[in-house]
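Researcher: We plan to redesign the surface later, but first we want a full-length starting point. C-alpha cells attached.
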C-alpha cells in the first residue's frame, strides 16, 4: 500500500483519481451492521471482494469484523494475505479449484458449492477423511423473473449459477453429498436485481423456506447473497431488507441456530466513491463539440451500462454549446461518457467529478492505454490521503514478469529502451 500524510488539496486531487469519502463509507457499513444486529443478531456480514478489491478497503472491512466473500482462488489468496483467517472467508463461485476447495473445507471456510465437480470433490474428501466432518452449502438456482417480473438482470433467460431445485438437480446433489458423509448445512441464494425492492429478498427467502421445509434441511447458514442497493439518503432500506428476510423465514428457520450470511458489495462501496477528472481538450467536428477528458469509460463504467451522476466546475458560465459530447482519453470511438445538454461550455482544465462509482470500477482496473488511477481517502475535515498511487510502467512490467536493466523512463527526461 502506498500512503502519505493527509494533504490539503483544496482544488481536488491530481486527476484522474478515485476519492473514497471515509464518512460515507462508515455510515453505510455501520448502518448495515446495525440492521443485522437488530433483526438477526446471529449473522455474518461478508464483504464481496470482487465488487472492489482495493487492499485498503479489504483491510478496512476486516478491522470492522466483516468477513471476506470470494469467488476465485486468487481472491481467496488475497483475503488470506490481507489477514482474513480461513474461518472468516466465504468461498463461493462456479470455478473453485480442487486443491483450494479441499483446503478451504479442511480449514473451516464457509463454502457454497456451485457445480457437480465441486460436489464430487467434496464427496471424495469426506470419504477419504470421515473425521473432518465436511460441511457445505449449495448455491440455489431460482427463478427471480418468475417471482418478481422485471427484476432479473438477464430478463427471461435462466441464470447459469447454482443447482435447479425444480428439476431435481439440487436434491440429487444433496443426496450424493449425504451418501458420502458430507453434511449439507447451507443454502446460497444470490441473485442480482434491477431495482432496490426489498421484495426481491423476500422472494429469495421464500424460495429458501420452501426448500428447507420440503427437504427437511437443518441449516448452519442461509446465505442470501449480495445485490442489495445502498443510498446515503434512504436510511431505512437495509433494515427493510433484513427484517423482510427474517419475517419470511420465521416459520422454518430458528435464527438462534441458523446464521444469516449477507455478501454486500455495491450497497456499501458504490456511493462513497468519486472519480475526479479534468478536461484535456475541446474540439468542434462538424456541428458537434467534443470535450476530451483524462478519464474513460474503462474507469468509470467498465460494463458500459450506467448513467453516472456528476458535478462540473467550469471556468466559464457561457452556454454557447447546447450539446457537448464528453469523451474519454482512449482511442475507442465509443469511449463517450455522456452528452451534456445545456451545461456551461467546458474548456481545458475544467474539472468533472463523477459520483457513486465505487462498485465494479477499480476491480475492473484496466491496463488499456493508461494504467489505473490513484486512489485517495477523504477524511471528515476534507483532507486527502493517498492510499494507492497511480500505477506506472514499472508496475506493468513487474506484473507481466518483465525485468529490465537500471534504465527508467520519465516523461520529459532522457529515455532508454528496456529490454
Ligand atoms: C455471489 C455474489 N455475492 C455477492 C455479490 C455482490 O453483489 P453487489 O456488489 O451487487 O452487492 C455478487 C455480485 O454479483 C455475487 O455474484
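Model: Full-length starting sequence:
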Amino acid at each position: 500500500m502506498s500512503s502519505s500524510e493527509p494533504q490539503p488539496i483544496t482544488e481536488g486531487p491530481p486527476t484522474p483519481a478515485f476519492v473514497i469519502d471515509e464518512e460515507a463509507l462508515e455510515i453505510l457499513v455501520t448502518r448495515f451492521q446495525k440492521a443485522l444486529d437488530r433483526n438477526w443478531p446471529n449473522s455474518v456480514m461478508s464483504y464481496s471482494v470482487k465488487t472492489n478489491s482495493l487492499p485498503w478497503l479489504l483491510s478496512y472491512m476486516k478491522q470492522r469484523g466483516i468477513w471476506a466473500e470470494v469467488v476465485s482462488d486468487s481472491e481467496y489468496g488475497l483475503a488470506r494475505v490481507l489477514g482474513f483467517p480461513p474461518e472468516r472467508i466465504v468461498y463461493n463461485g462456479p470455478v473453485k479449484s480442487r486443491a483450494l476447495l479441499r483446503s478451504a473445507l479442511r480449514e473451516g471456510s464457509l463454502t457454497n458449492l456451485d457445480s457437480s465437480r465441486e460436489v464430487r470433490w467434496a464427496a471424495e474428501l469426506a470419504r477419504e477423511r470421515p473425521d473432518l466432518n465436511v460441511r457445505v452449502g449449495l448455491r440455489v438456482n431460482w427463478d427471480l423473473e418468475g417471482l418478481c417480473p422485471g427484476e432479473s438482470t438477464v430478463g427471461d433467460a435462466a441464470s447459469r449459477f447454482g443447482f435447479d431445485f425444480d428439476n431435481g438437480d439440487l436434491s440429487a446433489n444433496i443426496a450424493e453429498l449425504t451418501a458420502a458423509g458430507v453434511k449439507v448445512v447451507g443454502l446460497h441464494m444470490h441473485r442480482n436485481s434491477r431495482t432496490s425492492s426489498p421484495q426481491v429478498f423476500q422472494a429469495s427467502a421464500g424460495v429458501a423456506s420452501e426448500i428447507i421445509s420440503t427437504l427437511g434441511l437443518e441449516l448452519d447458514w442461509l446465505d442470501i447473497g449480495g445485490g442489495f442497493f445502498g443510498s446515503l439518503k434512504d436510511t431505512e432500506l437495509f433494515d427493510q431488507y433484513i427484517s423482510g428476510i427474517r419475517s419470511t423465514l420465521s416459520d422454518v428457520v430458528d435464527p438462534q441456530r441458523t446464521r444469516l450470511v449477507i455478501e454486500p458489495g455495491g450497497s456499501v462501496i458504490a456511493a462513497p466513491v468519486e472519480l475526479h477528472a479534468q478536461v484535456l481538450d475541446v474540439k468542434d467536428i462538424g456541428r458537434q463539440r467534443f470535450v476530451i477528458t483524462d478519464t474513460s469509460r474503462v474507469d468509470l463504467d467498465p460494463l458500459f451500462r450506467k448513467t453516472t451522476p456528476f458535478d462540473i466546475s467550469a471556468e466559464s458560465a457561457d452556454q454557447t454549446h447546447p450539446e457537448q459530447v464528453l469523451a474519454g482519453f482512449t482511442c475507442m470511438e465509443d469511449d463517450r461518457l455522456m452528452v451534456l445538454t445545456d451545461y456551461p461550455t467546458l474548456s481545458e482544465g475544467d474539472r468533472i467529478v463523477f459520483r457513486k462509482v465505487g462498485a465494479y470500477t477499480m476491480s475492473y482496473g484496466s491496463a488499456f492505454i493508461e494504467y489505473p488511477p490513484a486512489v485517495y481517502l477523504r477524511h471528515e475535515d476534507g483532507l486527502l490521503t493517498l492510499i494507492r498511487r497511480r500505477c506506472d510502467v514499472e508496475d506493468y512490467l513487474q506484473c507481466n514478469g518483465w525485468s529490465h536493466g537500471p534504465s527508467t523512463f520519465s516523461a520529459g527526461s532522457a529515455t532508454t529502451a528496456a529490454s
